[in-house]
Amino acid sequence: RAGKEQKVEHTVGVLRQFLVEPFVPHPQDTEYYININSVRDGDWILFTHEGGVDVGDVDAKAEKLLIPVDLTQYPSNEEIAATLLKKVPKGVHNVLVDFITRLYAVYV
């Protein structure tokens, strides 16, 4: 369908770029979803322990953390874990906090 008009929900457009990755078998409970949204007061990081192709209503089910514009107020690793990773096994908190911090650094 490359180069042809497509409709996804309420958006119509032409698909020109695709990201294709090999499938790595894994249990469903190891998929996560994260996004970052900019607002006037800073950036919201939304994280849910339910990832996959059909994430669903992220706004309704995600844990949320506002990163203020003033980055001197950037949350500690402990605050990030306590706020965003409530439903994730503690054994992966350090890896995920590191990923979230690095992802945000690239974002800003």
From TrEMBL:
InterPro entries: Citrate_synth_N. Residues 1-108 form the ATP-citrate synthase ATP-grasp domain. The keyword Membrane does not apply. It comes from the Eukaryota. Gene3D superfamilies: 3.30.470.110. Keywords: Lyase. Coiled coil: none annotated. This is ATP citrate lyase large subunit. The lineage of its organism: Eukaryota, Fungi, Dikarya, Ascomycota, Pezizomycotina. The gene is acl1.
